[in-house]
Design goal:
By secondary structure, the protein is of the alpha/beta class. It contains seven helices and five strands, in the order E-H-E-H-H-E-H-H-E-H-E-H. It has a five-stranded parallel beta sheet, sandwiched between helices. Bound molecules: flavin mononucleotide (FMN).
């Protein structure tokens, strides 16, 4: 079994990456292989809306997303992590989501992938600086629809308000433990 972690913050050692690492540690300790992808290190064009993917399920843009498609299809479970930028996920993370229109097309236009009977689950990790009630609403909707499009069940999240400075999450009383447990529970099917 394999868990894929997608790190959507453009800064390294970010609050998001710290939480993602904890979640992946939890998954690893629960006995599975894990892999982390740093989206900001990849060359991923935004979707160009040319619908080449509707023909055969493949995106015609040849960039680092091609390798990420394979990883997304192979993964049994996914941890998607992005801080809040303007009430949504980062543009780096959103480019990945939008390019997954090709995977949506495979399933919903071309009827591909029906032989895959795995129950794949995904969780979302996010942080934001402010504390408003609706802070994560937009991002959660995006990630829910993203998971649904690629055949992954949204099975939980860790959303932490009031986090702004780099590494500030380290001082949070519960977030690191919660992230670890989120990763463990993802693997254990809780
Ligand atoms: C371009 C940009 C937009 C942001 N927009 C929001 C926002 O809409 N709401 C919010 O609470 N924080 C916002 N923030 C703050 C980040 O969410 C916050 O600093 C977070 O801790 C960064 O996470 P990271 O360390 O994982 O990158 C924004 C930061 C940047 C750079």
């Amino acid at each position: 079994m394999k868990v894929l972690g997608i790190m959507g913050s453009p800064r390294r050692d970010s609050n998001t990456e710290i939480l993602l690492d904890k979640a992946l540690e939890g998954a690893r300790e629960a006995g599975v292989e894990v892999e982390k992808v740093l989206v900001s290190k990849l060359k991923i064009s935004p979707c160009l809306e040319i619908y080449a993917c509707f023909k055969d399920g493949n995106c015609s843009i040849k960039d680092d997303m091609q390798a990420l498609y394979d990883k997304l299809l192979e993964a049994d479970h996914i941890v998607f992590a992005s801080p809040i930028f303007f009430y949504g996920i980062t543009s780096q993370a959103k480019a990945v989501v939008d390019r997954c229109q090709a995977l949506w097309a495979r399933r919903h236009v071309l009827g591909m992938g029906k032989e895959d009977r795995r129950v794949r689950r995904g969780v979302f990790i996010s942080v934001g600086a402010t504390r408003g009630e609706k802070l994560f609403d937009g991002a959660v909707l995006t990630v829910k629809y993203f998971f649904d499009a690629i055949g992954v069940k949204y099975s939980g999240d860790l959303l932490i308000r009031g986090i702004d400075d780099k590494g500030q999450i380290q001082d949070h009383p519960t977030a690191l433990e919660d992230a670890f447990r989120l990763g463990q529970d993802l693997v254990r099917g809780k």
